[in-house]
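Build the 3D complex.
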Amino acid sequence: MSYQSHGPDDRAAMLARIGVDRLDDLFADLPASLRNPPLEVPPGLTEPELLRLAGRLAARNSAADLICFLGAGAYDHYIPAAVGELAGRAEFYTGYTPYQPEMTQGMLQAIYEYQTMICELTGLDVSNASLYDGASAVWEALLMSERHVHQGRFLVSRSVSPLVRATLRAYASAADFPVAEVGDPLGALDPARLEAELAAGASALVVALPTAYGELHDATALAELCHRHRALLVVIANPLALALVKTPAEMGADICVGDGQPLGIPLQFGGPFLGFLATTNALVRKMPGRIVGATVDADGQRGFVLTLQAREQHIRREKATSNVCTNQALMALRATIYLTLLGRQGLRELATVNLQHAGWLRRRLLALPGVSALGEGPHFHEFAIRVPDARGWHQAALQAGYLAGLPLAEWEPELADGLLLCATEQRTRAELEGLVAVWEELA
Amino acid sequence: MKLSFEKSVAGRRGNFVPPLAVPAVPLDELLPAALQRATPAALPELAEPEVVRHFVALSRRNFGVDVGFYPLGSCTMKFNPKINERVAALPGFLDVHPLAPAETVQGVLQLLHETERLLSTICGMAAFSLVPAAGAHGELAGMMVIQAHHRAQGAGRRKVLVPDGAHGTNPASAALCGFEVVEVASNPAGGVDLDDLRRKVDTATAALMLTNPNTLGLFEDRILEVASIVHEAGALLYYDGANLNGILGRARPGDMGFDVVHVNVHKTFSTPHGGGGPGAGPVGVAAHLVDHLPLPRIVRDGDVFRLEGTAPRSIGKLLAFHGNIGVLVRAWCYLRAHGPEQLRAISGDAVLNANYLRELLRGAFEVPYERRVMHEFALSGRRQKAAGSSTLDIAKRLIDFGFHPPTIYWPLVVEECMLIEPVETETKETLDAFAAAMLQIAEEIRVNPEFVHAAPHTAPVKRLDEVRAARQLDLRWRATGG
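Done.
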């Protein structure tokens, strides 16, 4: 296939205007030894051939048909049709970064609305325009903390997802900053035990709301402790949980990050997702990534632009606050449309359905013989349980058409008999009871 | 235009929250009162029809490549094929959990594996990782690979060389790995000054980061010499693939001696840029660096694919999951749509269009480098600046003609720079119309620079005050006087 527009006459006329005989003459700067290597790629497909082939590959992803009780950082929520329709408007999705604001007011205003919504959810003062995903956003938050506190060391709770902690290890190793893991996977972080680590010097502590195992803990005391030691508190939050839960700002967090995937973004085998980052006014100039601000035009009319660009790589180069250029703007737009459709009431109702569904499933499963709690909670829409044979139970459910959470042996050896389960608003009564019935047989 | 928040009426909402499927338990029993938020998040309250009109209205105040010509230099704003959108929306790709067991995701793993192989072939590299989420993320991954290589050699190399014309992301990415960034000068022909390179490369040098064709659209014709200078010092050569479109199928970074490569699939491989993202920035390496690629790796055992999550020499995980898969599905479509000759035809027309458009414009605007260009070219607005209108004015006036302006004031090595990339999917008529607009603007500047300085005249807003935006920060709406 080809998406070029020229016919042979066009090319001849253009070459004549340039003053060369052949197209190849335009490539004369390429050393002859490098020019036109053999390319062992398959012949090009026509559109119907491509669609057939893609359809065959898509059909081999039976995961798409499983009833999903798996979360662990990627959540199965209903996405209203309007989200895809609107974000799929060509004016949005075929645009570049809005460098020319007079021509891109639509995206800029949408991102300004997005930033306002992230501030509303987290309770914090300012938000950036998006980062790659939740895990990389945590690292950006730590770099921000380092620019503010300069201790060259970070603390992260072991109740933070192992996927996030592994990501932090990779970046921290490259940047040569030690990251110390503190506390236990389950339960709240004990302030008394944290004190010594903070006293040893740290630019920030990272905790999660809820934790990787679904537990919600008030971090207010941790924030006070961090601040006493001049460290910042970074809270990783599930944005949907924030509909109901005390906000990171109310707890005293300095930075809140997380993944906006639950807000209208499909699972897509893990991406593109949406890293969000919000902070206090005091730290605004240390934020990474794009930021949209309101201003006025030559007639005094309100308009929107990319602002605080003096922080960014295209101006500050190696001294920039981050290297982020392309971000996840279209995903931020999806989240904005999704939250606008939900509205103030809808957001709370949706979060409540998630909370109730998971609560019901947890109670029913804990009533089965041989099943016990891993973590006392409270929980939002995810929780861990201990079962007699986690892999066996997971496999049995898979045979019955359920993607029944994550066997925790993959994450923490000490939780090897654990299963991490999630029940969102998507799960029907029949599906909830169906999973319980599969395991009743085994219990 | 009003914000959604300013259109909000208490009690309005969309209708997609399902009813509870289970008996309700009092909220306080599930979530202690002390852990509940004090006030609800003040989201706007609108019914669905109003939400739809709001975002359609916003879309009409936005510009994409489906709307018109978008010659934004270094960004390769080519047509985004519609079949790619349809494929990416297949439920078998859309509704797949990233932690689903490997046996339930064989199709997407096969697609990703194939994408890695195709990119490796096209770039002449031993292997690719698709994990990085954007070009700058690919650069960071590449610099981490280079660092891992030197650490494994026991060498404390702390310097990274970057040409003065490089993308700002290059020095920023190197700095994130703790490297000291040293700038290498350009020569009068717009290429790397080899004498300056020889002076600056030494046993502390970890790498040279290079874009080729470079950021002026010029092919670094002494690339083989550059590679040998860098390699003789024990350093590695990094390829910023932002400009791969100019040589696609006609020369391979691996053959030029590059050890590490990133490509921007949202440039060369046609995935939509989404108004700022998401992109994807796959990183490719030569054989001696394969073990350092990020995790997870896609492993093929016969006809079965799986993700490998551990590898002792890998730089590790860069995201929670496996990359911007939805973007990569679109890139796979583009790769499979093009055979070898069709890939070469892409760079052929991209270079043809750039050279043709430059010929149309050279009479009215200053051409800083009198050399054959590849897929993009720089012009200087110096002459117009002297007549009273800056490059910024020219850019804003182009908006009135329905064209997106080129990249402006970059690269910094050209005064009053306009970097113009016309891409292969544009017609001769479009290029002619753009050139006619540029010539008309040049004429307007001669007779009435004030008119050009006041542009745009037809956009939904007049020229915006960016200085005020940065000084009087207003980054979110507030109910009281936002």
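The longest strand of chain A covers residues 204-209.
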